[in-house]
Specification:
The structure holds 2 protein chains of 2 kinds. Chain A contains 15 helices and 2 strands. Chain B has 3 domains: 81 residues, no CATH class; 110 residues, Immunoglobulin-like (Sandwich); 128 residues, Cytochrome Bc1 Complex, Chain D, domain 2. Classes of the chains: A mainly alpha, B alpha+beta. Bound molecules: protoporphyrin IX containing FE and copper (II) ion (2 copies). The site of one copper (II) ion has 7 residues of chain B, from loops.
Amino acid sequence: MSAITPPAHGIGLPVEREPSPPRGDNYLTHSRGILSWLFSLDHKRIGIMYLVGVLTAFLIGGIFALLLRTELLTPGPTFNSNKAEAWTFYNHCFTLHGAVMVFLFVIPAIPAVLGNFVLPIMLGAKDVAFPRLNLGSFWCWIGGAIFFTYVLLGGILNASFGWHLPGGYGLDTGWTFYTPYSTGQGPHAHSTDGTIAALLGVFILGFSSILTGVNFIASIHMLRPKGMGWFRMPLMLWALYATSVIQILATPVLAITGLLLLAERVIGVGIFDPAIGGDPVLYQHFFWFYSHPAVYIMILPAMGVISEVISTHSRKHVFGYNFIAYSSIAIALLSFLVWGHHMFVSGQSPLANAIFSLLTFSVAVPSAIKVFNWVSTMYRGDIRFTTAMVCAMCFIVMFTFGGLTGLFLGALSNNIHVTGTYFIVAHFHYVMVGSVLFAFLAGLYHWWPKMFGRMTDLAWGNAGALTLLVGFNLTFMPQFIMGAKGMPRRYATYPVEFQGYHVVSTIGAYVMAIGLFTIAFNLLHALLKGEKAPANPWGANTLEWHCPSPPPHDNFPVEPVAGDPYDLKSWQWDEATKQWVLDEQRARTVAGTEPTVHHH
Amino acid sequence: MLLSILAQSAYLPPRASTVAPEVDGLFNAILAIITFFCLVIFAAMIVFAIKYRHRVGHEGGASPGHSTALELTWTIIPTIIVLTVFYYGFKGFLNETVVPPNAYEVQVDAYMWGWAFTYPNGHVDPELHIPKDRPIRLVLSSRDVIHSLYLPAFRMQKSAVPGRYNRFWVQATRLGEFPIYCAQYCGQNHSEMLSKVVVHDPKEFPDWLERASDLAKQPGFTPIKAGGQIVAARGCLNCHHTDGTASTGPTFKDLFGKQEVLNDGEVTVDENYIRESILYPQKRIVKGFGPVMPSFLGSLKDNEIDWIIWYLKSISANYKGDMSAGLSGGAVATSQAAPATKPAQ
Ligand code: HEM
Ligand SMILES: [Cu+2]
Ligand SMILES: [Cu+2]
C-alpha cells in the first residue's frame, strides 16, 4: 500500500475532468495496427469489436427479413416461378433470419457490446476480472459466426449455381431445430443437412456467452470500488449480473442438447427420433429449458440499459431501485421454471400445462412493475429528449405491448388457439426486437459519446428512432390480428384473405429499414463529423462518466470512490463553461460518505 | 352483443365449436385489460414527458426514491389480475381436455404434407367430416415429423407427434366448411398442408360416410373418375401436378407409358412401376427429384391402386391402349390385378 493522499476530487471522481483527454492517450489511440485490436485484452476494444460483429450479423439477418417479407407480398411465389423452389428459398430465409438474429445478434448485443464496454468502467476498474477469457469469448463468437457463414454460403452457392458444399446445402429447420425434422432420419435429410454446421456454431457461440457470464460475475464480485456496496451498484450491473447467472446455468443445456442432436444425426444414436427409439418431445423440453431463459438473457440487460437511460435523461433518481435490483434476480431464477409454456399443445400432461401456465404468470408481475418504475422515474423530472431517451420511451411502448400480449399466451385456452401462428411471431418480435433493439439503440446513443468521444446529431437520431417505431408497429401490429384470425407462422404461401395484413406488414418492414439506415448514418456521421464529447455530456453520476471520453487505456489513473449512482442533482449545468459540474459537497452528503482516502 | 359480433369479425375467426365462445370471452377480457393498462401507462408517460420536459425556467422536482404503498398497490393488483386470467384460461383448458362420453372417434394421420382422417368404418379421407352437435374425439399421430392440427374456427390445436398418440376433442356448433392448417413447421410444403373440416347435419352424416367409403357405389362411378378422386383426396396432387410442370414430384401428365430416367437406369412407366412407386416409393427415384414420397403401403387398397392406374392412363398421350374398361362402371371396378389388363404397347 502506498502513501495516503488527501482526495483531490471527492466522491466518485477521477483525476481528470477535462472535456477532452490529453492528446493521444485514449484506448482508441493507445496502440496501433489491426493486431493490436484483434488480440487486445482491453475490454473497451473487445466491446467495439463485438459491436462491429453483431452489427454485421444484424445486417445479414435484416436482409433475410426483407427477403421474407417481400416473398409474402403475394400468396404466390415471388423470387422463383417454381413453387417448390420458392417455398424452399423462403424456408431457408426464415431459418437463417431467426438463427442469425437470435444467436449472433440479440443474445450477445447488449451484454457483449455495451456490457463489455461499460461494466468495468462502471466498477471503476481497469478491466474485467479475466481479460484473456474476455478475448477468448470474442474469438468464440467469431468461431461460431464462421460456422453460420458456412451454412449461409452453402445455401447461396446451392441456390445460385447448384454447387453442394459438404453439409452446406443450407438450413430450413427454423431456429428451433425441432426434431425429428432436424435429425434428418427421414427422406428429407438433404434439406436439413446444414443442421450439423449450424449446431456446431451454436455450440461454440454458447462458450462465448458462458465466458462473458463468468467474467461479469467475477468482476462484479471482485472489482467493486470503495463505496459501492451491492445496493450502490448501477442497475445496469444488477441486470448484467442476473443475465450472467442465466448464461452460465442455461447455456450448457443448449450445448448438450446440440451435441445429442448431432450424435443422433451423425452416428444414429436414438435420442429424439422415434424411428430409432427416441422421443421428439424430449428435444423440445431441452431446447426450451435453455431458450426460455435465453429470452431473459436478451431482455434483462435491456432493462438495465433502460434504467440508466431513463434516470439520467429525466435527471431523476431511479424510482424503486431495490425492487428493480431484486426483480432482476427473481426474474432470472423464475425464468428457469416456465419453459413448458412453449409446449402446451405438444401433448405434455394437462397437469404440467397447468403448472407451467401458473408459473408463467408469476414472471409477468415483476416485468410489469418495472415498467411502472420507469414511468414513475420520469415523474417530476427534467426530461431531455435525447435520442437515447426517445429510444428508451419507445422501449417502454414496445415492452408494454409485448409483455402484455404474453397474457394471452400464458392463458392456456387462449394459447391453444394462437400458438404456432403469427400471434407468436408478433409477441416475440415486440419483446425481442422492439424492446431489445430499442434498448440497444438507447444504450448506443447514451454511451456513444463515451465510446468514441463524439456527440450524435439529435434531429437525425430522433427522426431515425421514430421512423423505426412507426415501421415496427406497421410490421407487427397486423401480425397480431392475422395470428388471432388463425394465420399460421412459417408459411411461404397463405390464404388470400390474409393478404391485406401481409402487405401492410411488408411495407412496415421497409419503413423499419429506412429508420435503421437513418440511425446507422447518424451514428457514423457522429464518428466522422460529430461534435467532440465532454467527459460527462449528460450529467450522469455512474462512474463511467467520471472518466474522459473516450476513456484512456486503463480507465482510471486513480481508483475512484463510488457514490449514489443516481445522484443526478449533484451535477449542475454550468452555462458559462457549457458543461456539467459536480457539486462535490452535495455528492458526499448524498452518498453519506466522509472524505475518504485513496490508495494509489 | 352487437359489440361482440363486431369484435369477432374484426380479429377472430368464425366460432364453430362449443369451446369457442369461452375462449373468445377470455380473449376479449384480456384485450380489455391490456388496452386499459396500455392507455394508463402511455398516458402517464406522455403526460410526464410533456409536463416535465426540459425547458427554460423548468426545474425538476424531488420525489421519493420509492413508496411502499404505491409499490404494494401495483404489485397486488397485477397479481390478482394474472391469477384471474390464469384461472379462466385453465378452466377453458379443462373443458377442452375432458372428453365427454360417447364421443365419435376419428383417427388422424399427419404426413409430409397432408392429412389422412380414418373413420370408424375404415374409410380414409383427406378432409375431416363430422356431424354437428356431437363430441368428436380425435386421435392424432404422424408418419414422419411433428405436425400440428389446427382448427382456428374451433379454437383447437394439437401436435401430431410420430411414435405417440395425442388426443383432443371438439364439438361443432355450426354447419359449414372451416379451414384446417398445419401449425408446426414441417419442411418444404408446410404452408400447403391444408385441409378442411366439413360439418354435416347429424342426420346426413351417415349417408356421407357411406357414400365416401365406397367409391364404386357412388353414382356415375367409373374407374378413371375414382382414380382422379383418390389422387386428389390422398394428397398425391400436392406434389404431382397434372399440367405438365414438375413440382416436388414428376408431373402426372403423359406419365403412363413414358420412358423415365432414374437415378440409376431407366424405366418405361407401366402398371408394375406405378404400383411399386406407390407402395415402395424409395426403391427407384426419378432423376432430379428427392426421395421424399411417403409409402402408401397398407393405406391404399388394391382396387384403389387399379383405379389410380386407370386415371393415369386417361391423362397420358403415351397410352395408346383400350380405354373402355376404365370408362365403364359396375363389375369392372372390382376386377383384380391391374397387370392382367395390361395392353400391348
Ligand atoms: C412478460 C411476460 C411474458 C409472457 C407472459 C410470455 C409468454 C409467452 C408464452 C406463453 C409463449 C409461448 C407461446 C407459444 O409458443 O405457444 C411465449 C413465446 C415467446 N416469448 Fe414470451 N412472454 C413474455 C415475455 C417475453 C419476453 C420478455 C421475451 C423476450 C425478450 C419473450 C420472448 C418470447 C419468444 C422468443 C417466444 C417464442 C419463440 C418461438 O416459438 O419461436 N417473451 N411467450
Ligand atoms: Cu418462453
Ligand atoms: Cu405439417
